[in-house]
Amino acid sequence: MKVYELAKAVEPYVIEMRRYFHEHPELSNHEDKTIERLCEELDKMGISYEVVPHGGIIGYIEGAKPGKTVLLRADCDALPVQEQENNLAQKRVCCSQNPGVMHACGHDGHMAMLLGAAKILSEHKEEIHGKVILFFERSEEIGPGSSYMFAYMDQHGITADTVYGTHLYAGLESGKVALNTGNTMSTAMGFNVTIHGKGGHGSRPDQANSPIDCFVAMYNALEAARLTKVTPFDPLTLSVGILKAGAVGNVIPNDLTFGGTVRLFNREEVGLPFYEYMKEMIEGIAKAYGCTVTYSISKPSFPVYNDPECAELARKAVSEQVGDHGEIVQVEPWMASESFSSLQQLIPGVFALVGINNPEKGTGALHHNEFFDLDEDVFTLGVTGAVSYALAFLDSDIDTSARKWKGTVRELLAISGKSDEEIDKYYKGEVAFK
Prior knowledge:
It is built from 12 helices and 16 strands. The protein has 434 residues and is α/β, with parallel strands linked by helices. The strands form 3 sheets. The chain has an 8-stranded mixed sheet with strand order 1-2-4-3-5-16-6-14, with helices on both faces. Strands 7, 9, 11, 12, 13 and 15 form a 6-stranded mixed sheet that branches. Strands 8-10 form a two-stranded antiparallel ribbon. It is globular, with a radius of gyration of 23 Å.
């Protein structure tokens, strides 16, 4: 099968779909019309599917011959960002029609490319030796769409031998596709802390227990911890993005709230010890400054990690199909996090980063930014990657069974930071979010 040529042929359809999704973005847990449109497109292709309440869509393409199973994934939700009419260089080809909501991370392109791949595969079933599962995931940005999907798959005995996902990436030049071996994206720990002190007049700080002073000590301790508590051979980044305290300059406030994220790759040896250190440090410094504290810190989950054997197959298969139309590269890992990491823990596979950075088109803005935009010319590379990997894996003798998750899905969800109550709701299909 000449996959790149087929992907080029469906490019107008993929662009049409991307522009529709971009013009009609929906926030996490509210993607109802998006799901409806995806179902309409799958119906047109004659692809059977199941809608998972609060989770997304699972579609099925049965090949002409029995064999292994490949799962191809895309995410569906948008972000609460007010889009700018122009990108970094020019007017956009399409704009959000939903004020304050924008596809600022590329999910519009992810859905469109998976539909394009589905179109090709559904029209060439005779060349598929096995099964392809289409996995359209809701609420990737804030969760818990994948958790509902995992619970549904567990209940219905749905599994695969490998998974493949694509993320359009502004940190990589257009025309390049990163298929890393090993670490590709980090995992995240979120934290939110409120320090309760004793307020007072700015003229007598000695009569107050300032939560601001306490915060400064905590912040300095967090900054120092990256040097004194973490091995230099495993990266960890930390940033504070929320800081709220006070109303006027001459009054020491009673409370201060700050929050942020920690990003890392080594969950066991770096993430979990740092999690414990943060709790001890926050409580200890608060006590030393005569304050109390309420806080929440999420345990680290998993990084996006490309199975080495699958990544090697992906590079070979995609490179052969793309030819001179693109370049397959290995890049430094992206410090953002992705729910695809949990899917890879369940089933070994590959996450591809497709570059969209094109200064002439103005598509180099960072993700989650009002100037973020996509280079639509790279969609063909994304579609080619998904189809090429699926076909190559189904025709290969790779056996991933020994590398699949050995515990239960419930255990995986618990390790990912989900409570027993939340997990029960996932299995019942009940709303587990506010």
